[in-house]
Write a structure and sequence with these properties.
By secondary structure, this protein is of the alpha/beta class. It contains 7 helices and 8 strands, in the order H-E-H-E-H-E-E-H-E-H-E-H-E-E-H. The protein has a 6-stranded mixed beta sheet with strand order 3-5-2-6-7-8. It has a two-stranded parallel sheet with strand order 1-4.
Length: about 270
């Protein structure tokens, strides 16, 4: 599948949430065709906490590392929840093409690509999802799960001159407003992280706006038992400041064709 086809599987025209699927990681993605296996249909959930089924008034924000965010999202999709990848980082230089199958992770071995945030496994998860999602029947207004990569601001590597800097942040403009969510019947949001608690600083700017508008925000650790617990989102620095976005992207590299990702010696786009 070419990039446009993969994107269309994740952002089908019938879904009311497709306008918020960020196209950046799909732009260079080519997926090797393959049949969906029985194992892929069933999915692997390990000891993850998962809702029994989709609840019409409940949305999710999944902030987990790389491929885990995709795999957890696919487990939610099997329960009737619409996936919305909000991933704004480029996997590498624009001239590279990524081809993924179950037996291959792309033109270079995993972990050797000269990027700050290695997105190989995340991209392979997007390819896997493009095969699985069309088989899952759900309504056009199924509740959403917004998927983020929690490695987005560091990737475990120190930004250096020879590394393609594809660190990124998320912003309130990347998500539906609280007003729109409420118009679509969403009354509460579950934040899924590795451990329950406060969201990352950039995500605080999103969730606190929702909370102030009347949405219930709950938190859940992916491997923690018990139901999600309500949290009061801490107020981040420069909350609602008009210059917040400009200040937040200082030190990050904007891509020429949108999103984040460029060489440290480049001026970006």
């Amino acid at each position: 599948m070419k990039s446009e086809e993969v994107y269309a599987k994740w952002a089908p025209t019938e879904s009311i949430w497709s306008p918020w699927v960020v196209p950046v990681p799909f732009a260079q993605l080519v997926c090797v065709p393959g049949e969906v296996t029985d194992g892929e249909r069933a999915g692997a959930t390990g000891d993850w906490w998962l809702p029994e089924r989709a609840e019409k008034g409940c949305a999710f924000v999944v902030d987990l590392p790389g491929e885990m965010a995709i795999e957890y999202g696919l487990a939610l999709a099997r329960r009737g929840i619409r996936l919305v990848p909000v991933i704004d980082g480029s996997p590498g230089p624009s001239e590279q093409v990524f081809a993924f199958s179950e037996a291959s992770v792309g033109p270079e071995s995993h972990g050797t690509r000269k990027v700050v945030v290695d997105m190989d496994e995340l991209l392979r998860g997007l390819c896997r999802g493009a095969r699985i999602l069309p088989e899952l029947k759900m309504s056009a207004d199924a509740p959403p799960a917004f998927l983020l990569d929690s490695c987005r601001t560091n990737g475990g590597r120190t930004p250096e001159r020879e590394l393609f800097d594809n660190r990124w942040k998320t912003f309130p403009q990347d998500f539906p407003s609280a007003r729109l969510l409420k118009e679509r019947g969403i009354e509460s949001v579950v934040l899924v992280q590795e451990k329950a608690g406060q969201p990352c600083e950039d995500l605080q700017h999103v969730l606190l706006r929702w909370q102030e508008a009347g949405l219930l925000i709950r938190s859940q650790g992916i491997s923690e038992s018990g139901p999600p617990t309500e949290i009061r989102v801490d107020k981040p620095s420069m909350f609602r400041a008009s210059w917040y976005r400009a200040m937040a992207i200082l030190g990050l590299r904007r891509g020429v064709f949108g999103g984040f990702g460029n060489w440290p010696h480049s001026t970006g786009g």
